[in-house]
Amino acid sequence: MNSLAENLASVKARIASAQANSPSHDACCDSDIKLIAVSKTKTASDVQAVYEAGQRDFGENYLQDALGKIQSLNQLDIRWHFIGPIQSNKTRPIAENFDWVQTVDRVKIAERLNNQRPEELAPLNVCIQINLDNEASKTGATMAEAKQLATAIDRMPNLILRGLMFIPKPQHDPHQQLESCMRANEQFRCMQNEFATMDTLSLGMSADLEAAIQAGSNMVRIGTDIFGARAT
Ligand SMILES: *Cc1c(COP(=O)(O)O)cnc(C)c1O
């Protein structure tokens, strides 16, 4: 088995080669791709090992699991991203402990995060989660809902609207992955025209990282290929 540092290095190499193969990311432009290491269900010492290999952005889905790690690693310079479904009665610890929240999908949640973000902290970076395939079982806003939500977030002083987040439905065929990711990119570009603070397309996981980058993603969220498979 490879070490976590080796896994991190090989994910970074995949990102670099996907970027080199993508016309939408030409080298002259400021199109850095940010890597989020998704550490859900993994231990604080795993997070620390990846941190020591140079990683600074980590993503967590489960609040209780995350809060323990955030506490025990609070001396480290980590940016924490909340990427799980949000229950409205759990917004306060999210507003108090995270730097980014990528799964905002309704106004009520945005309002609560805005009201609960501590004054002494920088505004919370927010992505709206879009339900790309209109799957009934999934969280995420439709594009029509997203426009209203973005307009509302734009007026909230303690939130900054950074972009859109997508979880396309899992597909093995790379062409189908690319087709989904291109649709996500179109929706992002369309919103970005209206909302000037939007600079982040959060799209791409272990299985579709290449398709996401080829379609123009500039933030990928990688769990399995850095930390190994998760127990279920
Ligand atoms: C778990 C998760 C990831 C990482 O998925 P992997 O397939 O393990 O890379 C990315 N984004 C979200 C929202 C997740 O829940």
Tell me about this structure:
The protein is of the alpha/beta class and 232 residues long. The chain is 41% helix and 17% strand. It is built from 9 helices and 8 strands. It has helices at residues 4-20, 44-52, 63-72, 91-97, 107-116, 143-154, 174-192, 209-214, 224-227; strands spanning 34-38, 57-60, 79-82, 100-104, 124-130, 159-166, 200-202, 219-222. It has an 8-stranded parallel β-sheet. Strand 5, helix 6 (143-154) and strand 6 form a beta-alpha-beta unit. The mean pLDDT is 94. It binds pyridoxal-5'-phosphate.
Summarize this entry quickly.
With about 230 residues, this protein is α/β, with parallel strands linked by helices.
Strand order of the largest sheet: 7-6-5-4-3-2-1-8
Coarse morphology: globular
> Hey, roughly how much beta strand do the residues contain?
15-25%
Ligands in the model, by name, code or SMILES, are: pyridoxal-5'-phosphate
Number of strands: 8
Radius of gyration: 17 Å
Number of helices: 9
Terminal residue distance: 20 Å
Biggest sheet statistics? 8 strands, parallel
Tell me the structural class.
alpha/beta
Q: Averaged pLDDT, please? A: 94
Which segments are poorly predicted (pLDDT under 50) over 5 or more consecutive residues?
none
The run of helices and strands is HEHEHEHEHEHEHEHEH
- Give the fraction of residues assigned to helices: 40-55%
